[in-house]
Design brief:
Layout: E1 2-6, H1 10-19, E2 29-33, H2 36-46, E3 50-53, H3 62-72, E4 77-82, H4 87-95, E5 98-103, H5 108-156, H6 161-172, E6 180-187, H7 193-199, H8 203-217, E7 227-231, E8 238-243, H9 250-265, E9 271-273, E10 277-278, H10 283-295, E11 306-308, H11 326-335, H12 338-353, H13 360-382, H14 409-435, H15 437-448, H16 455-462, H17 466-477, H18 481-497, H19 504-510, H20 516-527, H21 531-539
Parallel strand pairs: 1-2, 1-3, 3-4, 4-5, 9-11
Antiparallel strand pairs: 6-8, 6-9, 6-10, 7-8
Helix pairs in contact: 2-3, 8-9, 11-12, 12-14
């Protein structure tokens, strides 16, 4: 902390320097000036937090200095030390923020007490400023999320508008005369692959930057908003553009937004636009129309553009069903040959390529067909056994896009071939496992877990030595045969314990334990709680 002493009498400055225990108060620098004019130069450079000043000085007196301080350095605290106690001087000191007015000759105890009080005040205000700055930073971060949430909720539930009408009017200048709107949806799924790769770890930054571009266009030169852009929290990758003024030139506004996005990100994006609707009552309907406009756009078109909603049903070029090619694909997968899989998928893709248009709705229908077929095949090949590992096909559907953000049929073909090849490998592995004696033993255990089976009984049943079974089973499954059996029994016991009408002894017997106490001991060791405690925990 820096302090300054301003007095035209050197012995007064020396006395103040001597009497105040500066280091105790955390003051490491004490500056001196012999009049107000000299003090101002030093104040500009060093900006001390604490100033001691006389009132009567040449060139610039204390009254003028305090007036300068209150205008240029208002955070500094001033202690007046003067030989004059005129009312006007005291009043002036108070008016310009003086903390105290000490009369000469200086009372040492009063000086130290006043300095201590003033330093405490300085620190308190510094803490408050830091807290306020931190709060302001937090608010600046939270505010966009807050408004994104408000607008998203309004699109889903327009009836909540009255609750936020005053707040929205203050923030966006939305007056009661606004009764109509158009809504557009800008989907980040249509952004270029290059941009996705560049910002994949900073996806929130992409949203923030895009909304800044959009909101800049939606704020006119004179500062009046014609609309608002916000992140739609009910969908993963959407920005909603709500236009509530200048509706007659909405197409030009949306085209301008698209141009600005291209100039900023070197990537164009498709925008779906609704018709004109009453505001705010029909926001939900407007959003549905904008989404429909996007979903029905022709994904084969080379140029991205503004897609306005049309309530007429889309023209159909004939229904193309994946099921027509399903048998050839199924046989190729069963063959285990990647070449055959690629050939059968290629026949389907060739039919797709001949279509004059493809939209998102059609792609989603094919995706549903594909997953239905795959589920049926898996049921045929794997039965009730363990399913293959989770694949990317289990994820939500996304339109396969190339680096320019356009539908890529080639990429889709590669995804299908890759997925079906993986499925074929799982099928072949499953077939090998079925013929493997260790998996036969595991199957035998799963079917007879409730009986008192032993390693010797299993060895006799499969005509193998106990040692061979123990060694090979551990190699195949990573655990001892006895642990494998216990795991199955405990899992079955957990299910049976959900039935409140079964006693613990009955559950034990049903999973292969004749001794209830031994069953409880094994259960607690495996699960961490006793069977009774487990049952009570599930009932609560």
């Amino acid at each position: 902390m820096i302090a300054m002493i301003v007095d035209d009498e050197k012995h007064v400055r020396d006395a103040i320097k001597l009497l105040v225990p500066w280091t105790t108060f955390g003051i490491d620098t004490v500056l001196e000036a012999q009049d107000g004019a000299e003090a101002v130069e030093m104040l500009r450079q060093h900006r001390p937090q604490l100033v001691f000043t006389d009132m009567m000085m040449p060139l610039m007196n204390g009254m003028e200095l305090m007036a300068w301080l209150s205008e240029h350095l208002p955070s500094a605290k001033t202690i007046v030390i003067s030989g004059h106690d005129e009312f006007d001087l005291v009043r002036h000191a108070i008016k310009h923020g003086g903390v105290d007015y000490i009369l000469k000759p200086i009372d040492a105890e009063q000086l130290v007490e006043t300095t201590q009080k003033t330093v405490a005040l300085i620190r308190k205000e510094q803490d408050e400023r830091r807290q306020q700055q931190s709060l302001n930073m937090e608010m600046n971060q939270i505010k966009p999320v807050y408004w994104d949430t408000i607008w998203s909720n309004l699109v889903s539930e327009p009836k909540t508008y009255e609750k936020h009408a005053k707040e929205i009017a203050e923030e966006y200048g939305l007056s009661p005369d606004v009764t109509s709107c158009r809504l557009a949806v800008l989907s980040l799924d249509t952004i270029s692959g290059k941009l996705k790769d560049r910002f994949w770890s900073q996806w929130d930054l992409v949203f923030f930057s895009l909304m800044n571009v959009c909101n800049e266009v939606l704020t006119m030169d004179r500062g009046q908003r014609i609309g608002v852009a916000f992140r739609f929290w009910n969908s993963e990758n959407e920005i909603v553009l709500l236009l509530f003024r200048e509706l007659e030139r909405s197409e030009a506004v949306f085209l301008h937004i698209q141009e600005c996005i291209v100039n900023t990100f070197q990537s164009s994006m498709d925008i779906g636009v609704s018709g004109v609707h009453p505001f705010p009552d029909k926001l939900k309907e407007a959003y549905a129309e904008a989404k429909q406009a996007l979903r029905r756009r022709n994904l084969l078109a080379r140029q991205k553009r503004i897609h306005e909603y049309d309530d007429r049903p889309p023209l159909s070029a004939g229904v193309l069903s994946m099921s027509e090619y399903a048998e050839a694909i199924r046989l190729a997968v069963r063959s285990g040959s990647e070449e055959q899989i690629r050939k059968s998928v290629g026949e389907w893709i060739d039919a797709v390529r001949r279509l004059p248009s493809i939209n998102t709705e059609q792609l989603e229908l094919w995706w549903h067909e594909y997953n239905t077929l795959k589920t049926r095949w898996m049921s045929e090949w794997f039965g009730d056994g363990p399913p293959p590992q989770r694949t990317q096909d289990d994820a939500p559907f996304h339109v396969p896009m190339d680096d320019e953000g356009r539908l890529s049929i080639d990429m889709w073909e590669q995804q299908l071939v890759r997925s079906l090849t993986e499925l074929s490998k799982h099928m072949l592995k499953s077939q090998r496992q079925d013929s493997n004696v260790m998996f036969e033993i595991a199957k035998y255990i799963r079917n007879h877990y409730h009986q008192d089976i032993t390693l010797q009984e299993i060895a006799n049943h499969f005509y193998l030595s106990r040692e061979y079974i123990s060694r090979k089973f551990k190699q195949e499954f990573g655990e001892n045969l006895s642990d494998y059996l216990s795991g199955i029994r405990i899992d079955k016991a957990k299910l049976l314990l959900l039935n409140p009408h079964l006693r613990i002894a009955q559950v034990a017997a049903m999973v292969g334990y004749e001794d209830e106490k031994y069953f409880s001991k094994v259960f607690k060791k495996t699960v961490g709680v006793s069977p009774n405690e487990y049952r009570k925990g599930r009932e609560s």
